[in-house]
Each structure stands twice: as C-alpha cells, then as structure tokens.
Amino acid sequence: MNYDDLANLIFPDVVDSSVYEEKYPKRNLKEGAMVTRFAPSPTGFVHMGSLYTSFADIRLARQTGGVVYLRIEDTDQKREVEDGITGIINDFNNLKIYFDEGPTQGGGYGPYIQSERKDIYQSFAKKLLKEGKAYPCFATEEELKEIREIQEKKKSRIGYYGRWAKYRDLPVEEAIAKIKEGTPYIIRLKSPGKFENKIVLDDCIKGKIEMPENDMDIVIIKSDGLPTYHFAHAVDDHLMHTTHVIRGDEWVSSYPIHKQLFEVLGFEVPKYAHIAPLTIKEGNTIRKLSKRKDKESAISFYHKLGVPNEVINLYIATVNNSNFEEWYVEHPDKTIDDYEFTFDKMPVGGSLFDLEKLQSISKIYFSKLTAVDIYNRTLEYAKQYDMEFYDLIKDDKDYLVALLNIERNVERPRMDIGSYSDVKEQFWYMYDELFNKVEDPYKEVSYPYDVSFIKDYFINVYREEDTEEDWFNKVKEYAKDKGFAINRKEYKENPSNFLGNIADFCSIIRVMLTTSNTSPNMYDLLKIYGKDKLLKRVDLFLDSINK
User: Fold this and answer.
1) Among 170, 375, 446, 463, which residue carries the largest CB count within 10 Å?
2) pLDDT (tens digit per residue) in 269-301
3) C-alpha–C-alpha distance, residues 310 and 297, integer Å
4) Is the same domain home to 384 and 429?
5) Is residue 151 predicted with pLDDT exceeding 80?
6) CB 59 within 8 Å of CB 324
7) Cα 490 to Cα 498: distance, rounded to the nearest angstrom
8) According to DSSP H, which parts of 461-500 are helical?
9) Which CATH number characterizes residue 289's domain?
10) Could you tell me the pTM of the whole model?
11) 72: which strand partners?
C-alpha cells in the first residue's frame, strides 16, 4: 500500500486538483494590476475595522485596474450567526460599497462562499496526501491534552510538532487500517519546517519582519470535511489569483504557516500587507476598537445619526493614508477617487479612532452640499428614523430649504450640520409643532430688567419687507431708545449707564425665537418664520419669563 491508496481511501470521489487549476486560469489583467479580496467571517455586522480593511482592498485594486472580490469565510460554522452572510452583504449594499465579484455579483472564480468550495479544498488535500506531505491524525482530545501537559511540565513549546506529533510517521498500512475500522481522524500538514530557521516577511506596510519558520503540523481538513482557515486561505488565494492579501496585523503571526502552505502546495506566495488596528482611548490606556464594546464601531451607529456614507469613506481615507486630508483640502474640486492610495502612507502602528474628527469632516462635507441636496437626503433619513420630522417637512420643502440656505452660499459657510439628525436639532424651534411640545422652553431664561418692550418692537417696528441693513438700523435705533448702548466703546466705559449693549438687545430677540444665544443669521430666521407667528412666540416668551 502507498500514499495513493491512502488518498483514494479518504477522498474516493474527489477529482484531481489539476481540474481546478484549469477551471480557474490566470486573470487577464495588465501588469501591476492588483487582485485583492475582503474575506470576512459571517459572525456579526460590518464594523469600522472591517470597513477600514475593505476600503484599502477596494481602493488599491480599482486604482491599478485590478479586481476586488468579496469572499465569505464560513468554514468555522460553530461561530456563524444566523443570517450572517446576508447581513454582511446587506451592510455593504447599504454603504453603497460594491465588489467586482462575490456571492451576489458572481464571477469566474466562484463560488465565493467557502462552505460551497468543499470539494476544491479536498482535492488539494488529496494532492498533499498523495505526495506524503499530509497525513491522517487520529489523536484524541485526551491524547492532545496529555501532550500539552507534558510540554508544560518540560517547558517546551506548546503544539503538535516534531516528536510530539504522535501520528506523523504512522505507516500507511496502519493508517488505512484505522480508517477502515472507523477511527475518527483529521488531516494534518506534515510540516517540513524547522523552528530554528528564520524567514522574513517583506510586509508592504510594516517592512521586513523576521520570524521563526513554521514547524507545526497544522490541521488542514477537519473531521467535518471542511478546511481550516489557514488551508482554505492558501487554496482560495491561489485559485482566485490574489496578488495582495490585505488584512489586520493580528494575522502577522500566521504568516509562517501561510507561506509554508503556499510553498508545499507549489503556489506562488502573494504579497502581504498587515494593517494596523483602529484604536480607542479608554482612560489612560489605548486599546483596539471593539465591535462588541464600542458603539462607534458599528456602522449602524452612524446610519442612525444620519452621517452620510461619503463622510465615513472620507474619514477612513484620512486614517488610511497620512497625507490624504492635506490633499483633499488642497483639491476642493476633486473627489476621493482622484487620490492615489499607497502602502507607504498607511500607518505602521495603531490609528486612534477620533469621533470628533469624523464629525468635523462631516460638517465640512455638509457645508459643500446644496440646501436642496440636504433637504432631499434629510427627508429620506427622517422617513426611516424620525417620522415626526418627516411629516413636518415632507409637504413644505421650500421652508426647510430656505432655512438650510442661511449662510450657505458664502465664502465661509456655516458648519453647524454634521448629520441628517442635526437638521432637526438645529431648526426644531422653527417648527411650532416641535416647540410647543417642550414643557417650558424658556425655563432657564431670566433678565435683570423688564423685557416686555420686545412685543412693542415686533408690533410697531419690525417689518418683514425690510432689507437686512434697514432691519438692523431700526434695531439699533429702537434699542438705543430703550436704554441700550449701540457703541461698544461707550458701553465699556460706562456700563452702569445702560441696560446693556446692542448685542444684549439682539440676544433677547434670538432667545425669544430659538431659546439659545447662538443661531444662524437672525434676520433670515425672523423673515422665514413670519411676523404673525413671531407675535405668538413673543407672548409665549413673555408669559414664561414673567411667571
């Protein structure tokens, strides 16, 4: 009996691996084109970390005229969550992120779900068995535990390797006999490596990293017939002709295994780029952003806030390449697609996730949109997340567009909107339906003098048809008559001679309408709101502060 007999016994109906080599020929791409893949496990939602990695996959492939594909790695089916695959695909669709190939798009190198590629992995495992480079391992849980305990006592490296690999050199005849007897087994790689040997990972981001060669007889096919992550990784990246494996740097330590698998299988080793993780500050420590602990990690968090997908991409681009932000500021007429991303600009260490930075980027982004754009997108957002606001704005587009246009089409536009939810937060007071729901909007407001004159101002002085210049001149004249200083220097020299200055008088008007000391241009707000409603608001204001 020989290795062929063993391989045919274990995989009697599995075709030769050459069939798949012919089925998946080399891609017809120009020189330098990258083939990348994003390969998540269906164990949860798409989060900031996975978005960060997929962003690099997509940008680098597209800008080189290459291909980026989505591959679902679901061979560890104990970890898979219900609807995990559908959830990942839907998350990317909602983000308007599209791959060239994948489970839904199809492509010439599928299937793109690993559990559907079982026969492919087994054919290459059969190849290794025939070549004596893999073997069936019959070690029980008890045997493995015993090996580990002895290793711990002897302070040896933990693992199944060398003299600890009990079934590594089991004669073929004995292995066949055990299989025929029904003894459970898995398939292990017969590692040709030596731990004392050193290999070098020439990482596209981190540079050269020296590490020990792999000597572990790793599992390649589990008892359920499915491959381990490591084996599937090698087979798929070879057959799908991946040129660059871009992944989190927690996988750096796996490189010796992956390099060895490619070489043992006779495959060309792809290039590797290990991305530093997104980190977050917690007290005095910095840790990796967690999809379980941190709400900021979930993309749904931003969707509920109303942060546009474009902003998330801009933030990820800023983190991804160190000079992107500077370039983007210097090229206001260009888009993210015009920038060339490179490995050498990617951070080697962890990148601190900065929610304030993201919000700042979002405000700049919103400041460049037209009021009509913001209205249309806010309407769509509100329909999903805020039906109360949707019902208020759906039939009065012009009103909200006018509000959004305040200080927009100027050299330095306002930057108080950073999400679709901010629209309501910024202008709620302009909607009586929202204003009147507040039990006492002026409960924190008080003045050291009687402000009842504000009603006289709106009845006898304020005119909607006035220009902004005329309006302000009348405000100053009226304020002066009521004891307010209209000259800052005069007020500063003798403050006790006045009720306040002109800014204090304007603040009364502002607080009356908005309940706040800050707001967009007051003249525009008053004009849009209308005099009839202003007089009713004045009554509410005076009733509240005169209680």
Assistant:
1) 375
2) 999 999 998 988 888 888 888 888 888 888 888
3) 17
4) yes
5) yes
6) no
7) 10
8) 468-481, 488-493
9) 1.10.1160.10
10) 0.85
11) 113
